[in-house]
Amino acid sequence: MNYLTDMVSAAENGAYQQRIANGTVFTVVVPLTDISPSPTAVIQDQVSQVIHAVERQGWRLDHTSTYNKARGDADRALLIFRSAAPQT
């Protein structure tokens, strides 16, 4: 496994756990870092893969924003999801 795969798997597992706990909101932070020779592609790929993974667990993206924890630190995307359908 690699960094991107691990991050996507962790987000999907967290979304699953929140879903079975009857949560109505799920948030995930995606670092916007340069982890390959093509940073633009990777950043887009990181965000889109996490969104797809979380939505597979029954969530829909509600809001997104970017922030920076501290000066010189990598930007991050905060993704906020809402439950797509009531739990059965």
How do the helices and strands line up, and which of them pair or pack?
Layout (H helix, E strand, L loop, with lengths): L2 H18 L4 E7 L7 H18 L2 E10 L6 E9 L5
Antiparallel strand pairs: 1-3, 2-3
- Which runs of at least 5 residues are low in confidence (pLDDT < 50)? none
Radius of gyration from the alpha-carbon trace, in angstroms: 13 Å
Biggest sheet descriptor: 3 strands, antiparallel
In what order do the strands lie side by side in the largest sheet?
Answer: 1-3-2
**Helix/strand/pairing category:** alpha+beta
Percent range for helical residues? 40-55%
Distance between the termini: 33 Å
Taken in chain order, the helices and strands follow as HEHEE
Mean pLDDT: 83
Query: How many strands?
Result: 3
| Molecular shape | globular
Strand content: 25-35%
Describe the structure.
This protein is an alpha+beta fold. Helices cover 41% and strands 30% of the residues. The chain contains 2 helices and 3 strands. A 3-stranded antiparallel sheet has the order 1-3-2. A hairpin with a 6-residue loop joins strand 2 and strand 3. The relative contact order is 0.23.
Give a short summary of the structure.
This protein has helices at residues 3-20, 39-56; strands at residues 25-31, 59-68, 75-83.
Summary tags:
88 residues, alpha+beta, 3-stranded antiparallel β-sheet, 2 helices, 3 strands
